[in-house]
Design a protein that fits this description.
Number of helices: 14
Bound molecules: histidyl-adenosine monophosphate
Helix content: 25-40%
Shape: elongated
CATH architecture of the largest domain: 2-Layer Sandwich
CATH topology of the largest domain: BirA Bifunctional Protein, domain 2
Low-confidence stretches: none
Distance between the termini: 47 Å
Number of domains: 2
Radius of gyration: 28 Å
Structural class: alpha+beta
């Protein structure tokens, strides 16, 4: 039985041949994500992986809706696996915002599902770090969220030589569109055309833009100008003060495909331009209002960073650490008459939060010792009965090969002092 296309198995290291994903690497990424988000004062939340279909049909935009893993459940409800976290967190905040001091700063590590064509950097499930701020309209929050994105990538060992955050602004694009006589009602249609310009044939973009009364050359002229609009200048100044300016550049070619963005938007890419976007986000000040059907009005902004492209980049830059086993001690059972006492010893170690292992069935002592070396254990521990019937414990440091001998009376006292 094969797994579904676009889905992954996560084996522990060393992974079998042809299995590119490891649970160790996933945990390494999750650890850096969590640590950095907490350093910025963000709190972790989560929500259901299955949501009412309706949560996505109006708010996310056509592209994501076309990729939904949706079905009708046994209670005749139209439901969907979550393709992104933003509508869920918007619903959570809209429902319970009064219980939380503002600004709300939250992060989550959801697994998300999109029925996309599996390809390099795109699968049908992925994990995504989501960091979002609610209740702060000032552009200083935009700078904070971009700084957090940068620091998450730095925490994994990536530098300004490896990635760049391309900064843009939907307000700037909105002003551009209106100043050229665009109809405000068609602004999102216009944004979607701009979003695809890099991937689309020029004739197609020209034709689509012409229908809105805009020339492709004008759009290209604005992209090439790269002049920071005031909101972007403010973000740049803020990041410069932190020493992070080398990680960002103004690039109006970024506009984001999702429907709900309203202000500063950004995407992170590898500097060599070989991979898909590592992360993307921006300000979405109207979404809480929409999700709460007008009851709550809170400005919001954030980003999502996927694990798939990130892992590809870490591998390409040789930034994946080697993952050692987590076992500290292997308890050797050379005298089978001491197996039960040895199990007591294993339990004492585990009770003290010191990872310990042993062989389930009798095995030659050299095989047990080899297993300890293979597991990368720091030491072996072995019980031994003396001729007078007393029992002692031999503790061998596998690095220095030094051995300590202590009396063993069944209590954890032998373990004191490590
Ligand atoms: P997004 O740009 O759709 O934004 O996704 C963010 C990141 O998730 C992408 O840059 C990419 O790394 C990863 N990603 C997306 N789809 C896939 C896929 N099929 N396979 C692998 N990785 C993928 C959002 O989802 C927004 N909700 C982010 C956000 C949070 N905006 C504000 N707050």
């Amino acid at each position: 039985m094969e797994r579904l296309t676009g889905f992954r198995d996560f084996y522990p290291e060393p992974v079998p041949a042809n299995e590119p994903w490891s649970c160790d690497l996933r945990q390494h990424i999750f650890g850096c994500w969590r640590r950095t988000a907490r350093n910025y004062g963000f709190r972790e939340y989560d929500g259901p992986p299955l949501e009412p279909l309706e949560l996505y049909t109006n708010k996310s935009g056509a592209e994501i809706v076309a990729q939904l893993f949706n079905f009708v459940d046994k209670g005749d409800r139209a439901v969907s696996l979550r393709p992104e976290m933003t509508p869920t967190v918007a619903r959570m905040v809209a429902t319970s915002e009064r219980a939380f001091k503002k600004p709300i700063k939250w992060f989550s590590l959801p697994q998300l599902f999109r029925y996309e064509k599996p390809q390099k950097g795109r699968l049908r499930e992925h994990f995504q770090l989501n960091c979002d701020i609610f209740g702060e309209a000032d552009v200083s929050a935009d700078a904070e969220i971009v700084a957090l994105l940068i620091d998450v990538l730095r925490s994994l060992g990536l530098t300004a030589e490896d990635f760049v955050v391309r900064l843009s602004s939907r307000q700037a694009w909105q002003r551009f569109f209106i100043s050229r006589g665009g109809n405000p009602e068609q602004a999102y249609e216009f944004f979607q055309i701009v979003d695809k310009i890099e991937r689309e044939k020029p004739e197609v973009s020209t034709q689509k833009l012409a229908a809105l009364g805009i020339a492709l050359t004008e759009v290209q002229g604005f992209i090439n100008s790269s002049v920071p609009e005031p909101e972007l200048q403010s973000v740049l100044d803020n990041l410069e003060a932190r020493g992070l300016k080398a990680f960002v550049k103004v690039d109006y070619g970024v506009i984001r495909g999702l429907a709900y963005y309203t202000g500063v938007v950004f995407e992170a890419f590898d500097t060599k331009g070989e991979l898909r976007a590592i992360a993307g986000g921006g300000r979405y000040d109207q979404l809480i209002h929409q999700v709460s059907e007008g009851k709550v009005n809170l400005p919001a902004l954030g980003f999502g960073m996927g694990d798939v492209v990130l892992a590809e980049l870490l591998k390409a830059r040789q930034l994946v650490p080697s993952f050692a086993s987590t076992i500290d001690t292997v308890v050797l059972i050379e005298d089978e008459s001491l197996r039960l006492q040895s199990l007591g010893l294993v339990q004492q170690l585990r009770d003290a939060d010191s990872p310990a292992d042993y062989t389930f069935t009798p095995a030659k002592s050299d095989r047990q010792f080899k297993k300890a070396l293979e597991l990368g254990a720091a030491r072996t521990v072995r019980l031994e009965r003396l001729s007078d019937g007393t029992i002692q414990v031999r503790i061998k440091n596998l690095k220095t090969r030094e051995e300590a001998i202590r009396p063993y009376d069944g209590s954890p006292a032998w373990f004191a002092g490590g």
